[in-house]
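Please go through this chain and its backbone structure tokens and walk me through the local backbone shapes. Keep your notes short.
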Amino acid sequence: MFGVVLLVFGAFFAGCFSRMVSMPGTSYAGPAVAADAALEASLKVDVTQLAVGFGERNLDNAPDALERTATWLSERLTTLGYVVKEEPYQVGERTVKNLIVEKAGTSRPTELIVIGAHYDTAHGTPGADDNGSGVGVGLALASYVMKQAPARTVRFVFFTNEEPPWFRHASMGSEVNARATRARGDDVKAMLSLETMGYFTDEANTQHYPWPFSIAYPSTGNFIAFVADTDSRDLARECVRVFREKAKVPSEGASIPASVQGVDWSDHGPFWRQGYRALMVTDTAPNRNPHYHEATDLPERVDFRRLALTTEGLFGVIDALAN
């Protein structure tokens, strides 16, 4: 009888696990290819400006750099043709702000696709990968979308205060934004958080996971990951399917309970808590990158070729979601 119980439990676990990790399409496994040279160069310029030009940028240690970064982002977005809306809020005696721009939808303008990335850094780090890479990709996607005519409105939000001590705090930028989004009743169909996206390696045994996910995913850290909660499973599957059709970089996806450690570690978490479908696009950060939250998180650690290839794949994802 005990053996039957174990068998039933094992089958149930296998079914649930398969549902979490099964994604459509096939991850790219072809030869290394060149990315668009202009896109790769632009990403390198933006990430270098963030990590070297501004360096550490956070409210505690480097508030002036944080403010200069916000000003620079606003100017970059204005140059792309957007009207920047600031979302200011008070933290102690200081005012911080999220930056919001939109490309209005042509036929379904009240339906929103939200693309977000945080521009602050952890204490003591210049943040090239975390999260200069996400901000750089966000700017590249904003440039791409400005030239399109999406059916749905595409909203880009550059968040402040994602890093500790603000993470999961009421003063976390995406928490402020997600609550305001819900309070307005905005019809967000999907939210993508661009988080720590530029560290890739072809060395063996460089990718790590909590058990049991190590049995389902590669041990080489050369892929981009789409990480969703169970309520956002359909969104993850759609994003991975389209990405695998378009991108020339390996990809993996998962739909995991939000209670699993690390699954909500970025700006998508607050949107889950407001009942929206959301996911994180990431290189998996501390599960791969030894420079995560270190002073060595510098532009020379970022693989700009593969970051550009990832961005090209995301062009197709946004097209699918917005149309």
